[in-house]
């Protein structure tokens, strides 16, 4: 009887540690409050000299954003590279623990591009987090790798930013894939779409659905 009990404990111990080691999917939104989200909480940034529907569509709940490496920047005098991005301007934040959740999709061929950002940091940086795609690999800036083989499939993305603790966490399909430091700053918001970086492909596209913004309960 006693040994059976020990065996049971042992088995629980094993399954708990495999659970953590293999990164069993969890729901990262536990303990967070869903905030209202509709078109009044975001707008689209796109090449300044083009109408929005030349670089963005929203059909059946799917936001599709695309841009070419030869496109103009978002404003006439901007020195930045081309982009088409959803900017979540309705939830600027400077404190607290915030979360972005969405399903993302990157078609094969899109490379050298930022697909999601946590905007705002201390100088000289402008961002706290960039998720980029290089040749099918999703990376934190230019590294480390978050997940390989991101092309042509929907993935669930959760990004958590703890301002006071200066921490960021990235979950793919409910599994924690990156945990690192923030970069300071007192003004933040989330963005997703395509923003050309180094070694950008001629055509860049990402798709997004079921976008949610959440805030941790106090
Ligand atoms: C968006 O959500 C806000 C807050 O719930 C609401 O007041 C507003 O009417 C909604 N706007 C649209 C266009 O649905
Ligand atoms: C968020 O900040 C932007 C400036 O980047 C501003 O245009 C916008 O109105 C702010 N949003 C809210 C809800 O205050
Ligand atoms: C992506 O692939 C291209 C072509 O194979 C290669 O030239 C380039 O260096 C790769 N870029 C990265 C960041 O690995």
What does the model show?
- It is a single chain.
- The protein has one helix at residues 2-21; strands spanning 32-34, 43-45, 56-59, 62-68, 83-87, 97-105, 113-119, 127-134, 137-140, 145-147, 155-162, 167-172, 175-181, 189-196, 203-216.
- It is mainly beta.
- Strand 7 and strand 8 (127-134) form a beta hairpin.
- Bound molecules: 2-acetamido-2-deoxy-beta-D-glucopyranose (3 copies).
- Residues 36, 38-40 line the site of one 2-acetamido-2-deoxy-beta-D-glucopyranose.
Order of helices and strands: HEEEEEEEEEEEEEEE
> Count of helical segments?
1
Hetero groups bound?
2-acetamido-2-deoxy-beta-D-glucopyranose
CATH top-level class: Mainly Beta
**What spatial form do the alpha-carbon principal axes imply?**
globular
Structural class estimated from helices and strands: mainly beta
Unreliable stretches, pLDDT < 50, 5 or more residues? 1-21
CATH level 3 topology: Jelly Rolls
**Count of distinct structural domains:** 1
Relative helix content: under 10%
Care to count the β-strands? Answer: 15
Strand content: 35-45%
What integer is the average pLDDT?
A: 92
Q: What does the radius of gyration come to?
A: 19 Å
Give the CA-CA distance, first to last residue: 46 Å
Main beta sheet: 8 strands, antiparallel
- At CATH level 2, the architecture is Sandwich
In short:
The protein is 9% helix and 44% strand. By secondary structure, it is mainly beta.
């Amino acid at each position: 009887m006693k040994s059976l009990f020990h065996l049971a404990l042992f088995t629980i111990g094993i399954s708990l540690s495999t659970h953590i080691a293999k990164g069993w999917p969890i729901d990262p939104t536990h303990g967070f409050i869903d905030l209202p989200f509709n078109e009044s909480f975001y707008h689209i940034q796109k090449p300044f000299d083009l109408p929005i529907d030349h670089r963005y569509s929203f059909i059946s709940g799917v936001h599709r954003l695309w841009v070419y490496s030869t496109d103009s920047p978002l404003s006439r005098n901007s020195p930045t590279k081309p982009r088409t991005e959803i900017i979540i301007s309705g939830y600027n934040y400077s404190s607290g623990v915030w979360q972005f959740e969405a399903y993302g999709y990157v078609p094969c061929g899109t490379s050298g591009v930022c697909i999601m950002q946590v905007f705002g940091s201390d100088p000289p940086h402008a961002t706290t987090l960039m998720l980029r795609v290089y040749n099918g690999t999703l990376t934190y800036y230019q590294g480390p790798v978050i997940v390989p083989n991101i092309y042509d499939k929907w993935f669930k993305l959760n990004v958590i930013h703890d301002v006071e603790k200066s921490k960021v966490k990235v979950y793919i399909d409910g599994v924690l894939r990156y945990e690192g430091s923030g970069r300071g700053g007192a003004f933040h918001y989330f963005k997703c779409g395509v923003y050309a970086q180094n070694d950008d492909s001629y055509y860049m596209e990402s798709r997004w659905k079921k976008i949610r913004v959440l805030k941790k309960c106090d």
